[in-house]
Amino acid sequence: MIIVVANQKGGVGKTTTAVTLAHGLAIQGRDTLLLDLDPQGQCASALGLVQEPGVFNLLVGGQTLADVTRTTGRPRLALIPGNKRTATAQVVLNAEGFELDTIRQVLRPALRGGLELVIIDTAPSVGGLQEAALFAADLVIIPTAVDYLATEGVVKVMQTLDTLAARQGWQGSVLGILPTFYDNVTRESQQTLEDLKRTFGAELILPPVHRATVLRECGAEGKTIWEKAADSRSAKEYADLVWRVADVTP
Ligand SMILES: Nc1ncnc2c1ncn2[C@@H]1O[C@H](COP(=O)(O)OP(=O)(O)O)[C@@H](O)[C@H]1O
Ligand SMILES: [Mg+2]
Prior knowledge:
The structure is a single chain. The chain is an alpha/beta fold. 49% of the residues lie in helices and 14% in strands. The protein has a single domain (2-248), classed as 3-Layer(aba) Sandwich (Rossmann fold), CATH 3.40.50. It has twelve helices and seven strands. α1 (14-27) crosses α12. The longest helix has 19 residues, at 150-168. The site of adenosine-5'-diphosphate (ADP) has 17 residues, from α1 and α10.
């Protein structure tokens, strides 16, 4: 099962969600691989690990999944790190004529070999790699900060998915839209949540994750919320997401 975390906007909680979900599923006993397709390489940093050109080496450097997969010091959680060379990989792939099923192809041996779950974090842009990631997805999660531009970012992902389904036979589904940076005292947060429900249907809107300093601290310290503050509200909110994913993944 491949789960992709995507939104063409930056700073909406994609990396936080991908890392937290991946570690949460690993804690639940699932063999999980986190794949960082963003040239910012922040999955490694968020886990307290060094950035490496893993994605570059895998996609265009001739290395195998085994070569580029790193342990994370956390049971059942592995990482394929990325760094700025991921952007170079994208340029090389574009020049060679990009195959939409690049990501699916590259992960197939691992999934066949018994790996249960792959969580993919993506860059805040539209490009070959993001599309290839979405095309590989069995399940898509779309985090969005609840500001006034939220709907716009989500619409773009939805449009990409519609196109992939209509023209390329994509058969995955959207688990949901995850409102992040939620603040129940601001009108903007509440208004945006209402807008999202009206635009995409209330059943597609997941319970929001509140804005919380502890999540920012996690990223900065290289710890997941399960390590830093397992009893926090943020941990409870992300635990809900972990359960939802666990529920729909065999
Ligand atoms: N719910 C939240 N509340 C407060 N800070 C958050 C929250 N989610 C993420 N952050 C922080 O906001 C910044 C952007 O989040 P990140 O997950 O990197 O977004 P993206 O991957 O979409 O760019 C990071 O510093 C992260 O630690
Ligand atoms: Mg990110």
